[in-house]
């Protein structure tokens, strides 16, 4: 019992630590979490972690919170699920709300030091992103040269399709990128290809999927090479129909074992049953209700706020930046908060602090709703707490639903293929995230008085220091985070400021 408690505390401490230093958010934290809970702490198996990543990647909401939900519930059921999600999101939300409440009293120098810290930690996370890509290729090569070749092509193709905006920004190119697809669009293409072809590339499969994907890319690419909304709509419907047909063929003609029964799941060591699923849903409902009680007491608008918050969370695909546009439509355009509060204060803060942008933004909106009633900071905190609960629960609920379905149908061959090829797909997306983070460092460095070249030098110095300590000294995340933070503050203050 004591060992079990210690293991639980270790997992929760690891998740909280990632929540504190989670600069970059979303997809960027996939290798950070993996290194902490799979490699360093050895709390979960890599195959189980990959399953959480698959489900979180195809699910709307806050991705780090969803991965924490999966880790917590697999180890400790509904209780661990809610606690892990809470600890992942809470540090960033707390910092955001505190920063909003003291914004007028905070010395600008404090913001500068936070930005220096972010430069160092962004370099650390960028190092983990490249290591994730390298390990994914090494794993593919161990299986066969043929699989390595395919995995490498997939990774590079995903990177090319998604990196346009980031690469153009770094190079200072003002033109519209040719591709620049979103994460959702890239994943949609990948899953369509897997569902339809089952990775069996005969002449028919290759021609149909290849032509369809190329036309789709030309339609949705940022350059708008084909600007025809009707063709784009037809292509989306066509891809959806082919994907469903592929799934039907997979289950109908013996290409899988079909779905697994509750008994098979139990025998395999999985805790996910219908009763367990119901308990999870009840847990999330109580999570929202209990943490929202103070907000309900303060304002009757809490119901509207939570409804819009939940809706905005479950339709939020594509990461934090995408959520900002959703939140604009839900809360700014409808007059729930002022445009000046959202863009002049909240957006700048959520982008500089660690944690999920979705959770920070929804909690920050809640703070303004409560504060604007009669200027009370405590009322702002109370409504912000409700927004925090809503963002975490919405992400957790959708994750649990998709996870339940994934577990039930994991025996289908096509889902095994997703598990087999998800790492090179994620690796390609992470390379794009790394480029985006480097550009963000350039923006931060120039904003505090440095040049592009100097900021890049500082970033890569910290990057290579992390690489040396990681590979040669086998340093854990804690040491690397400390080194990166110290170097970020020291080098930026010594050179940029």
From TrEMBL:
A Pfam family the protein falls into: Chromate_transp
Chief localisation class: membrane
Membrane topology: Multi-pass membrane protein
Subcellular location: Cell membrane
InterPro entries associated with the record: CHR_Transporter, Chromate_transpt
A cellular component annotation (GO) from this entry: plasma membrane
Similarity annotation: Belongs to the chromate ion transporter (CHR) (TC 2.A.51) family.
GO-annotated molecular function: chromate transmembrane transporter activity
Protein name (record): Chromate transporter
Keywords, alphabetical: Cell membrane, Membrane, Transmembrane, Transmembrane helix
Signal peptide span: none
Parts of the chain that traverse the membrane: 12-33, 53-71, 83-104, 110-130, 151-171, 177-196, 208-231, 237-255, 281-299, 305-326, 346-369, 381-405, 425-442, 448-471, 478-496
């Amino acid at each position: 019992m004591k060992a079990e408690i210690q293991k639980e505390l270790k997992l929760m401490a690891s998740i909280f630590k990632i929540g504190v230093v989670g600069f970059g958010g979303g997809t960027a934290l996939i290798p950070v979490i993996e290194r902490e809970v799979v490699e360093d702490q050895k709390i979960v198996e890599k195959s189980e972690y990959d399953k959480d990543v698959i489900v979180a990647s195809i699910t709307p909401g806050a991705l780090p919170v969803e991965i924490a939900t999966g880790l917590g519930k697999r180890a400790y059921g509904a209780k661990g699920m809610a606690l892990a999600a809470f600890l992942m999101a809470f540090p960033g939300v707390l910092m955001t709300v505190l920063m909003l409440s003291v914004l007028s009293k905070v010395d600008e120098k404090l913001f500068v030091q936070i930005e220096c810290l972010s430069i160092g930690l962004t370099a650390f996370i960028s190092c983990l992103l490249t290591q994730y890509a390298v390990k994914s290729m090494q794993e593919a090569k161990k299986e066969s040269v043929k699989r390595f070749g395919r995995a490498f092509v997939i990774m590079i193709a995903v990177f090319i399709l998604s990196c346009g905006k980031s690469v153009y920004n770094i190079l200072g190119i003002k033109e519209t990128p040719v591709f620049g697809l979103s994460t959702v669009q890239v994943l949609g293409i990948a899953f369509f290809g897997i569902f339809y072809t089952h990775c069996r590339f005969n002449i028919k499969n290759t021609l149909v999927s290849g032509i369809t994907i190329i036309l789709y890319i030309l339609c949705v690419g940022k350059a708008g090479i084909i600007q025809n909304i009707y063709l784009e709509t037809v292509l989306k419907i066509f891809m959806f129909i082919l994907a469903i047909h592929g799934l039907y063929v997979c289950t109908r003609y013996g290409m899988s074992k079909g779905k697994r029964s509750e008994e098979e799941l139990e025998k395999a060591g999985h805790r996910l049953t219908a009763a367990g699923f119901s308990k999870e849903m009840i847990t999330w409902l109580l999570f929202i209700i209990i943490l929202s009680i103070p907000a309900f007491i303060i304002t009757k608008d809490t119901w509207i706020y939570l409804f819009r918050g939940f809706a905005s969370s479950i339709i939020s695909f594509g990461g934090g930046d995408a959520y900002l546009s959703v939140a604009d439509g839900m809360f700014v355009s409808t007059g729930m908060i002022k445009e000046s509060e959202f863009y002049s204060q909240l957006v700048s803060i959520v982008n500089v602090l660690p944690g999920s942008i979705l959770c920070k933004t929804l909690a920050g909106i809640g703070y303004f709703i409560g504060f604007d009633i009669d200027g009370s900071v405590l009322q702002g905190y109370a409504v912000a707490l409700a927004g925090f609960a809503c963002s975490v629960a919405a992400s957790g609920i959708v994750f649990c639903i998709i996870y339940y379905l994934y577990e039930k149908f994991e025996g289908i061959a096509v889902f095994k293929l997703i598990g087999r090829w998800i790492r090179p797909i994620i690796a390609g997306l992470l390379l794009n995230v790394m480029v985006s983070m480097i550009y963000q460092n350039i923006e931060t460095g120039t904003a505090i008085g440095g040049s592009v070249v100097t900021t890049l030098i500082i970033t890569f110095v910290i990057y290579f220091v992390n690489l040396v300590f990681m590979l040669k000294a086998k340093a854990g995340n804690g040491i690397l985070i400390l080194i990166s933070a110290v170097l970020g503050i020291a080098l930026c203050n010594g050179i940029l400021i």
